[in-house]
Amino acid sequence: MKVVQILSISILLIFNNCSKKMEHNFNSEYNYSIKLPENWSEYETDENNTNAFFDTIKWTGNLRITVMNYKIECPNKFLSKILIKKEGANINWENFDGIYYVEKTNNEEMNYWYLIQNKKLFVCSFLMGQLKGKKEIKNELTKVENILKTLKTN
Questions:
Q1: What's the N-to-C CA distance of the chain in angstroms?
Q2: What angle do CA 34, 111, 61 make, to 5 degrees?
Q3: In angstroms, rounded to a whole number, what is the distance separating the alpha carbons of residues 52 and 17?
Q4: How far apart are CA 102 and CA 98, in angstroms?
Q5: Is 137 helix (H, G, I), strand (E, B) or coil?
Q6: For residue 137, what are the contacts with CB-CB under 8 A and spacing of at least 6?
Q7: I need a surface site. Which of 8, 39, 99, 139 has the fewest CB within 10 A?
Q8: What string of DSSP letters covers 5-53?
Q9: Which of 80, 68, 41, 148 is nearest to 89 (CA)?
Q10: In degrees rounded to 5, what are phi and psi of residue 75?
């Protein structure tokens, strides 16, 4: 009887741990940190002040975060100009001023987030992979937004 109880508890713990999304911290040389899903990794890019990431199990797109080397003294004024020009949407995330917009060319969709935290500007982009269906695309954009919401300036 005790063996069966121990086995049952062990199986429950295994399934419980499998259902949790594992994350790892990424500390950028550009003075910020984010939490990435366990299967996401950085890849090298030749762009200045940029870190680039992707899902190593299933390629769903490329996420790039570029830190701009200047401070934004009036974030709302700066963002409102881009918002109008790009026909974007305001972002209402905790600890961020920001906007979001999409550019479509040919068969590619590039999603942009301009995020300001502590007067520091982050230009984040996600080149969408070959995802099928609106649900899969929405889920991937939600995943990317959840990553970006963990961004913290150092």
A1: 54
A2: 70
A3: 28
A4: 14
A5: helix
A6: 128, 131
A7: 8
A8: HHHHHHHHHHHHHHHSPPEEEEE-TTSEEEEEETTEEEE---STTEEEE
A9: 80
A10: -55, -45
Farthest-apart Cα atoms in the chain, separation: 69
- pTM of this structure: 0.82
Task: Measure Cα distances from 31 to 27, 99, 120, 127, 149 in Å.
Answer: 7, 21, 10, 24, 16
pLDDT score of 55: 94
Structure tokens at 66: 């570029």
Q: How far is CA 3 from CA 6, 10, 14, in A?
A: 5, 10, 16
Q: Report which DSSP code applies to 116.
A: E
Q: Which amino acid is at 151?
A: L
The DSSP 8-state label assigned to residue 119 in this structure reads T
